[in-house]
Amino acid sequence: MAEGEQSAGAGRLAGRVALVTGCGRLQGIGRAVALDLAAAGADVAVTDLRVDGVRNIADASEAETAVGWRGLTSLVEEVRTMGRRAVALTGDIGEEADAGRMVGEAIAALGRVDILVNNAGAPHGPDRGTSWEIPVDAFDMVMRINTRGTFLMSRAVIRHLLARRADGEAIAGRIVNIASGAGKRGVPERAAYCASKFAVVGLTQTLAQELGAMDITVNAVCPGAIATARAASREKRKAEAGVAFEFITSAVPRIGTGHDIARAVTFLAEPEASFVTGQSIMVDGGMLML
After folding, report:
1. pLDDT tens, 79-117?
2. pLDDT tens digits for range 57-83
3. What is the CATH number of domain 17-283?
4. Global model pTM greater than 0.85
5. Domain locations in the chain?
6. Which of 53, 196, 213, 243 could bridge across to 238 with cysteines, CB 3.0–4.6 Å?
7. DSSP output for 106-162
8. Whether 193 is catalytic
9. Is the separation of the CB atoms in 174 and 185 below 8 Å?
10. DSSP code of residue 148
């Protein structure tokens, strides 16, 4: 398919190319976002550290095992079944060389990148504890992935978009960062995570200020309690350690889904959202109202 040619089907994002990071899990936000963007007409490049999306065999969910989920390979097949082009990319977003390479590979495979969704996040680990107890290495790991990774991927895509704009193209670029309610309010024993997500919100606002006159919008979506493989894995480990389940209270009495987040992301990626930038939109059922 030639550059600029639309994939099969119509939609508000037909002819557009999206790059979504952190897409290897069956029950993840990344997969939901990639599928929703494809449903709106976009071709999609999806990334993760590994093609299978699982860091270790114990991390695989029962649902993934039951359906024979193969991470990015399965997701690419799903997107192609919808009549869209798709490519799987692997690398570490916290490494400058990997970030640049993955953006370059997406451009080589799909012709360009119009939309970036920074979804990849640090795994749950030893960063969960009081601020005076967590290891410095654990703090650094979370910041490296959640904040540095978002910066590096954004920078690589921004440079690509601005080069196209310099050639006279109307780019209508979109960057959507997946932040968190923990990026708007501190949470006990989440110093690294909160710091990283507050930083993502600040980066979102700064990029929006810098790029607003250059045909690029930058926004963040802040999920609340979402039913994902990571959340299920966390609760399983807590239960094994004898830690009580944390009950979530929100105005809408349910746990959110990846699709709830995906719909907000797709809206921000669409042409109709061209006057929305620098915002950090809560999608949490009204758990945090600011």
Report:
1. 999 999 999 999 999 999 999 999 999 999 999 999 999
2. 556 678 888 889 999 999 999 999 999
3. 3.40.50.720
4. yes
5. 17-283
6. 243
7. HHHHHS---EEEE---PPSSTT-B-TTTS-HHHHHHHHIIIIIHHHHHHHHHHHHHH
8. yes
9. no
10. I
